[in-house]
Design brief:
The protein is built from 10 helices and 7 strands. By secondary structure, the chain is α+β, with helices and mostly antiparallel strands.
Length: 345
Amino acid sequence: EIRLDFDEQVESTLGDIRIYDSEQREISIEKTVRSSTDASVVSAEVPALKSGVYVVVWRVVSADGHPVSGAFPFEIGTKSTGTSAALLEKVLNGTETTSSLGNPMSILRLLGFLGLILLIGSVSLLWRSPLLGSARVGKTLRYSSVFIAVSSLGLLLMQGPYTAGRSWGSLFDSMMIGDVLQTRLGLALFIRSICAIAWGVIALTASASVTRRWRVSAIVTAVVTIATYATSGHQSAGTLPALFIPLDMIHLAAISTWVGALLALAVVSKDNNVENETKRFSRMATWSMPVVVVTGVVQGLHLLGGISTITDTNFGKLLLLKTLLVAGVVLHSSKARSQLHADGF
């Protein structure tokens, strides 16, 4: 058998192991399966192989939904042929391992995040404001619900072809969709799609005077939607998920009540007197900004394994840059808040 042991859990579906001989012909092997006792191990049974050079090409999906692939050669016999490196290069050149869906999926993720922070930001800012029933706010809530729906359904359809190295032609492959739904990310995307419908109802029933049931529905939907991100992301696949999944949820909620509320304030300020809403946003930003910074830095360092490796990877460098940018925004916001106090707000 070919047995691959990873340093974190992988999904039970969408994995694939292939073997090629010295003529670059694929050898028929058993289906790739995940170990029933160790979620970080996958294997595939192989037939008896003759002496010669072979190449293994593998692909798995990590627990946080990211595809990981690789390849390695091996030889059977009593003497090395010295051709394994050349065969490996030929096989990889002739094997499709990348998909053109990467960039569209990134756009859909951004669209989903934008919809989420607009929804939570608008609801939290205008919680008891008569402006919640304005036409402009209603349109913003409805569009944001559509953003989440399009993002969720699009990612659900694209995840299978993307991880398999295929393209648009496999978008509606029912087998792949079924495999995706069995993964943690697939289930999260399905639940998020249902949340998008709930958000649509919340958007359509928003008014200047909403009921307690409406507020409870908004809170529950917001918590569940945020949970679909946290339970299918990096922190869910790392160490101490019981600690870092809630921390990730707090991080995303704080971003929404800061950036999302700021965007909502910009929307309602065009045609309305927003003195009360500006005061509320100032109070919300006062606690949400430091929460965003602290939870973001803690999560980033956890994923990196410590501050000493922060400049060793692109992720670490981007984290450092983002932290500096956020620090600059916080400093600017503090000055703006001081000016508001000076002006009597």
